[in-house]
Specification:
Helices cover 29% and strands 28% of the residues. With 419 residues, it is of the alpha+beta class. Strands 10, 11, 12, 13, 14, 15, 16 and 17 form an eight-stranded antiparallel sheet that branches. The chain has a five-stranded antiparallel sheet with strand order 5-6-7-8-9, with no helix packed on it. Strands 20-21-22-26 form a four-stranded mixed sheet, with no helix packed on it. The protein is elongated, with a radius of gyration of 54 Å. The N and C termini lie far apart (182 Å).
Amino acid sequence: TVQFIYNGTQWELADSAGLNKANTAQSAANTAKTNAATAQSAADSANTVLAAWCYNNNKTYIDGANIYTGTITAEKIKATSLSAISANLGTVTAGIIKSSNCEYTSGVFTDEGMRINLSSGAFLSKNFSVTSLGDAYFKGTLESPTGKIGGFTIEDGMFSSVVKKTNGEEVYLKINSKTPSIELYTDDGEKLPFSTTIDKNGITCWNGNFQDLAVDNGFWFMDWSNTKRRPIASATSETSRVAYFASKLTSGTYGLTVSGTWGGTTYSTKTINTTSSDIRLKKNIAPTRVEALPTIQRIGLYEFDYREDHTHQRIGFVADKLEEIDSKFAIGGGYNEDGTMNTKMVDEFYMMGYAIKGIQELCDWNVRTDARLDSVDAKYQSETAILKAQLASVQYQLQQAFEKIAEQDKLIKQLQAVG
């Protein structure tokens, strides 16, 4: 409640403390008004300065003529294009730099454009690339009239590399791209009795004795699938040739695969299998629960003729038929990467497990049968002994009866004689 007192001229508040509060509130209001006016003035000043920097009165664009060195500091700059910038950048830290049209999926070449990985050192483009391992790849033609590539010296259309004989003598292997041919020369230019020529059909003929030669870091060639191969000595007869060896591991079975003609004229692979059975290679070892005899009874034995040499085999297996019983009975099948047939082989070691298990099952059956026969024989012996005892008793009773009949017959005869 507020009380007022009339002093004869005007009304006054009776509470002086309330008057003081009102005066304080008025003063605060006046201060706020002054501050608002100052803020508005600052805002107007800022707008005036900003307007001076604007381009075409658009406050979102800055007129570059009004920017001076050292006047802008920024942690991040987002820009659609920096093509108009020309500057000495000094040291630039970056990860991957790529062209605007770069498209890259995988591999050593881009689909389009160029891509540089500064971290790994890989330089990839559509037609030329250097990987992080330092391997270079070209899609075009590499031309070098002279110089060295990978240890080969290039000179007048010929490649040459140092080959060493076992006695340490240096020999030069020269590849002539004009002939084309491959030849061996000594350090003084003497040609050695070894050469090869290649005709237009890609057939290569090697001549000479090179058993004492060893190429630095081993001798190998790259096959059609970019796989390094080492040459092997093969028979020259068309039906006895060997192309390559390969090793494989299938379900714990180690195999040596040989690609050869095998008496025919086309190449196919055959595998010689062996199995490691060391306990250190196995885990979860437990007695088998396989019942072998039902599976063995399903295995078919056939007679057949071989297609290549038409020989007849009177009894044997067919791997495809065995696979229908157990997929592990056969190894191989299908075709190799080079199109040759990968012939199926019978896994004899795996089948031997079934054979041994089948023999054990037959042995168990035989033991059980012998036990039953022994039981029957014992029962027979016991019953036979009882019958023999009963027969002996009957025989004794009959003997007694016959003796009594004989005595009665004798008595009757005596009575008839007296009578």
